[in-house]
Amino acid sequence: MIEMFSNIPSQPMLYQMGLFLTVALAVESLVRIRYLKWAFGSLAFCTIGLWYFIDPIYRAEEYTSRFSVDEQSAAYAQVIVFLLALRLSLETFVGRTRSSVLRGFDPNIFASQRVAKALITLWAVLFFIGVARMDFRVLDALFPVSGRWDRLWARPRFGGSTAFLVSVGEYSYQIICAGFGLVAVATRKRRVRSLMIIMMLITWPMFLLSGTRHHLLAVGLPTVLAILVLKQWSRAKQISFLLILGLILNTAFLIVIQYRNSGISNFFEERYAYEEEPAETKHLGLNMPMELMYLQTYQENGDIAIEWGYNYFAHVVNFVPRAVWADKPFPGEEFSDLRVGRNYRGDVNATISHGIVGQGVTNFGPWLGPIAAALIICSLTGWTCQLTSHGNPFLRACLILVVMGKIPNLGRDLTLFAAWPVIFGYAGIVFYEKQTGTKRNATSKRKTPQAS
Predict the structure, then answer these.
(1) Which of 12-21, 84-93, 174-183, 370-379 has the lowest mean pLDDT?
(2) pLDDT digits (tens, 9 = 90+) for 18-37
């Protein structure tokens, strides 16, 4: 893995410029992290680094064999446009909310027991529904060692008449499981913390063993961010924590990639079947620059026309069941057709992510597209930064952390599929605030202890 950095000097100049700009913007955002928008900015710039600047040096031979220097340079130029547009839009359009709002609650009077009870009750209801779909195979639901197709909330790849209802259950289950970790970090009550840790040990293995890396990040990353925000750790301790966590995740993800289809149980069986070590497993799915290069090639050749927002629209309405809307748009169908072809039934063999920059190019062309994608991220950041202007401070801080945890997933595509846990979480928080009378204005003075 470390050896890949030796490939940087051989990359096109625009790659090197883009990489330098990404690092510089991430560092600048971290320096200004006292404002919440720059906390989002640091995550967004790191996300671009993850999706667009690792794969070209990690699998350098594949890029040089498939694309010319000009094709690669054009793609990196579009990434640079996205980076500059995001930096300027965050500075111009998003207010200066302080990051301290994430600590805007008193943990000594935080009624964590009530929140924990609500989370466990909702989890029990959803788990019963989900495990009923698996013929009450409880152990297989909690520890899906047989592969990602035999798991809680599994659904057909291209959906069906009830697929969205299954997704509703999955996204709700996801944010509830994330809540266990957030409460465990925030509470001062040992009994509540112990209970939340037990629930994490019960529920979180599913997200790793089922081979869904982005779901694992969506559930676990908010807790990691909460630890960094709420724990009074030194900078050295924070960095050490992140380095150790990164090494653990790197190993876990490599195992997941190799065994997510056949099942993690084969990992233990095959260890004894090899007389020598098996071939090295590589990280897959970071190839967003490659998809961007294919996209611009297809557009230049006239194989795909600029969609002028249709792809974004298709993602927005993708929750509508096909039983209701038989001709519902298929996001990115033409691109997937060109990339992987169709099967004997006429369906595309797989859905192909465009990448956050590539999706903008698909919708609005090579130069307006990256700007449009940056403005969408800017709008999401602006909405999130004003969440704590009213309402329950702890729950809304948790939702902000959940949104931040979603930023890396949005690097593959800007889609409601990634945002549904946030939407359901927001709706649940508003309902909870109304039921408990904890909805308030930011300027109002609380005369009674906070009831969370």
Answers:
(1) 174-183
(2) 999 999 999 999 999 999 99
Among 35-44, 116-125, 256-265, the least confident range: 256-265
Cα(42)–Cα(44) distance, integer angstroms: 5
Length of the chain as a residue count: 452
Range in 56-60, 317-321, 381-385, 428-432 with the lowest mean pLDDT:
317-321
User: CB-based contacts of 431: which residues, under 8 Å, 6+ apart?
Assistant: none
Torsion angle (degrees, nearest 10) of CA 409, 410, 414, 415:
30
Cβ(371)–Cβ(81) below 8 Å: yes
For residue 355, give the amino acid letter: G
Nearest to 181 by CA among 140, 220, 231: 220
Going by C-alpha positions, the residue among 405, 396, 399, 397 that lies closest to residue 422 is 399
Rounded distance, CA 278 to CA 272, Å?
11
Measure the CA–CA gap between 352 and 355, rounded to whole angstroms: 9
pLDDT at position 232 is 80
- Among residues 65, 76, 83, the alpha carbon closest in space to that of 13 is found at 76
Distances (CA, A) of 304 to 314, 355, 361, 374: 16, 16, 11, 22
b (16+ CB within 10 A) / e for 240-259: eeeeeeeeebeeebbebbbb
Contacts of 15 (CB under 8 A, 6+ apart): 8, 53, 56, 72, 73, 76
Structure-token pair, residue 242 = 């992140």
* pTM listed for this prediction: 0.83
Distance, CA of 271 to CA of 265 (rounded, Å): 11
The pLDDT tens digits for 327-360 are 888 888 889 889 888 876 777 777 788 999 999 9
